[in-house]
Design goal:
This protein has 138 residues and is an all-beta fold. The protein is built from one helix and nine strands.
């Protein structure tokens, strides 16, 4: 690639300007003259790039589209295979939700974290319970 430009500076060199007047692409002997097929992704008419399949779907060369992963498997972004879901961990995959304190106790219940990839269909969240309110120490 070659380009031509002009450079301008104000009297105090505070205002600097550059103007590109010409851009020329050279050595394009290996440029693609036709579209190349997307690898493990979708090619949509009129789009200049390939699209990856959404989470929990993989590209099927047979149907040239995204297909859902089988039950109890997942596919993470940019992964072209479905893998078995891992068992859930309350410590990492769930988050507690606390009600406001009332008479020094509050209810705590759990929900699965948004976007968790574990096998929530075969996991159980802890039962809701009442806990003592903790006081903040300075």
């Amino acid at each position: 690639m070659r380009w031509s430009y002009s450079f301008y500076a104000g009297k105090s060199m505070e205002n600097l300007y550059a103007e590109i007047s010409n851009i020329e692409v050279t050595s394009a002997e290996s440029a693609a003259l036709s579209c190349t097929p997307c690898k493990n992704s979708i090619s949509e008419a009129g789009r200049p790039f390939c699209s990856k399949c959404p989470r929990n779907m993989i590209y099927s060369a047979l149907s040239t589209s995204c297909e859902p992963c089988p039950n109890n498997t997942i596919s993470i972004d940019n992964l072209s295979i479905c893998v078995p879901k891992l068992p859930c961990s309350i410590e990492y995959d769930a988050e507690p939700i606390y009600d406001p304190c009332k008479n020094n106790t509050r209810k705590v219940r759990y929900k699965w974290r948004k976007g968790t990839l574990c096998d929530i269909e075969n996991a159980k969240l802890p039962e809701e319970k009442y806990v003592e309110c903790e006081t903040c120490s300075k």
